[in-house]
Amino acid sequence: MIHDAQLGTDVYQQTGTIVTRAAVPDLEALYALAQKRREAAPAMGTVQQLTAQEVQAKLPLLTAPQAGVFLSGGARVDGAALVTTLLAKAQQRNLTVRQERVELDGDENIVTSAGTRRYDRIIVAAGAWLPDLLVPLHIQTDIRAQKGQLIELAVKDYPLQEQLPVLMPEGERDFVPFGQGKLIVGATHEDDKHFDLSLDAMVTADLLASAQRLMGTLTDENVVGVRVGTRAYSSDFAPFFGPIPEHERLLVASGLGSSGLTTGPQIGRLLAGSALYGGTPDWSDYELPLSTYLKSSLA
Questions:
Q1: In 10 A of CB 201, how many CB atoms?
Q2: What is the pTM of this model?
Q3: Under DSSP, is residue 40 helix (H, G, I), strand (E, B) or coil?
Q4: DSSP 8-state secondary structure symbol assigned to residue 42
């Protein structure tokens, strides 16, 4: 999709991913697991076990590296840039984009500020807001909202920094290096804050402390931005998508959680293909039946 949409490296770049572990047995178990999973997922690329020194060589901004496993197929993506760029390119292909809060009525119509509209197919991909949208259809949805925050840090601009791998340290937040000395650290998983989008100084300090355990040179002055958003999670933490039972004209997707930038594009592609070309594709290899997450409130 990245290739087809001609997206630049400022949006997506395959840099590789390092996952670290402190204990040697845990590291060896992780390495064995990665090798096994690669058999069914060759896009993971090469799997390589690294010493702490080899990790630091790949990520020179670290001051306290740990040993880890490197996956060459890993990549980094700027979510905001991805969405903005894809919408712009879609409009170039005659897709109309309207920014508006809408509702569904009991007859599967969309209620807008300009009146009620009926469409052949509707994809309802509203994240944590899905339960409210499906109330008029008497459907209960297994979705909860979760708040997430991350910080943006200004760090030393190393040569070829755009190619530095993503780091997923044990017990800490992810490190995502971008070009021009930008480093993203996060994100939090706050189950009690739901749709609260306010910035929290204590959370920012906690994220910075997490970063400082791997980069001892960081201070408050390195923090140049904070991002906050809302995720949608199901009870089993799995995403779900497909035609809504007894409402086949409606397609739905939610529950992606923090995997949204990984699974979202593929789920979107599958749903778009179904909406455009019809049919009843078999998605059983990807998910549980939708009845696991959607229940009739009239039952």
A1: 8
A2: 0.86
A3: coil
A4: G
| Chain segment 171-216, per-residue pLDDT in tens | 888 999 987 889 999 999 999 998 999 999 999 999 999 999 999 9
Rounded Cα distance, 144 and 198, in Å: 18
User: Helical H runs in the chain?
Assistant: 24-38, 52-58, 79-92, 130-134, 201-212, 260-277
Asked if 76 contacts 13 with a C-beta cutoff of 8 angstroms, the reply is yes
Whole-angstrom CA distances from 191 to 146, 195, 203, 232, 239 are 5, 10, 13, 10, 17
- Report yes or no: 22 and 170 within 8 Å, Cβ to Cβ: yes
Enumerate domains of the chain plus CATH numbers: 17-74+145-233 (3.30.9.10), 98-143+237-296 (3.50.50.60)
Q: In the numeric block, which tokens belong to residue 116? A: 């009620």
